[in-house]
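Archive entry: two folds, one per protein. Generate the first.
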Amino acid sequence: MRIFTVSDIHIDFAVNEQWLANLSDSDYLDDCLILAGDISDSEALIARCFDQLMRKFKAVFYVPGNHDIWVRKDSLADSIEKFFKLLELAQQHQVITEPKRLNGTSIVPLFSWYDLSFGTMSDTLLGKWMDFSHCKWPESLETPEAQNRFFLGKNKLQLAHSSERVITFSHFLPRIDVMPDFIPHRFRDIYPVLGSPQLDQQVRALDSDIHIYGHSHVNRSVKTKGVRYINNAFGYPSETRIAAKVLLEIDL
């Protein structure tokens, strides 16, 4: 069984959804796909995505991204309700959102958010970051720090079986130093909303060999302190330089 990954497919864009539809119906039937969040904020599109992928792959793993739990198009009470509804939707389609061992590899989904610790918040970011208007939260989870604690608290950090290797994955970044040096400073104002170092604590508590993440839309493979961090984001149609726009096979 081969293991492939992609994130941030954003199939609200017709060209992205067409790429998904054009994936082979026969090449990956014995393989696994790790989908690291950001399909769409439309439940109907997410369901359609799950349906297509389950016909193309033997197993599909998934964690919701920030766009997935926007509630601007839904009648749901808040983004937490949307989160749990997406987990139910995944279960209905046999998409995996919990740790599972496959052929000697434990694959562990990790839920998370950002805690604003990767940079300094600016008025520009407050004005342009759409999570601040498209997500809704219960009163007990009004701050990003509280939201991150909530999602991290849902993770299962005890593996049921020992394995030869562990692959963890999340939508958000577990450490800011996975971002490459070539990112211009004018674009680094989004760093506060990229992830949380508390996520990396869970990655390392699981003794992960490989951690896959999304969200930044910057394709990346870098090894830091014994863990290989991989981002293979599909991204928006215009993002042709920083995103490869293909499935990536994980070299085990």
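Generate the second and append.
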Amino acid sequence: LHGDWIQDPAIPVVTGFLGKGWKSGAVTTLGRGGSDLTATTIGKALGLREIQVWKDVDGVLTCDPNIYPHAKTVPYLTFEEATELAYFGAQVLHPQSMRPAREGDIPVRVKNSYNPKAPGTLISYYQTKGHG
């Protein structure tokens, strides 16, 4: 992929919810977080500067917007904080989906496909703007 994108710098759109068994060749769904895991795995393999995952919320929120409609977007999180939130029930990202990005030190930006102008949440090793 890397060579193809250097020659033709198009923006690839990759579906990530489906996978294929290595030995069996059977097509299967990857389950919760499968698309995000696909994005971070490809992002790490290509050494990207940032990986974006698009959701139906403006980023990682301070609480469940279905319970409290005035939830606010958290602008910056560390990988550790985002993983901990996911383990304790935050539904926006599966904890394992961030592993490739964390290993590659590549920030992950959570964006809203229904509100693309919203800045989203930036997840990286550093919590403050200017360090990631």
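Annotation attached to the second fold: The first strand starts at residue 18 and ends at 20. The CA atoms of residues 20 and 27 lie 4 Å apart.
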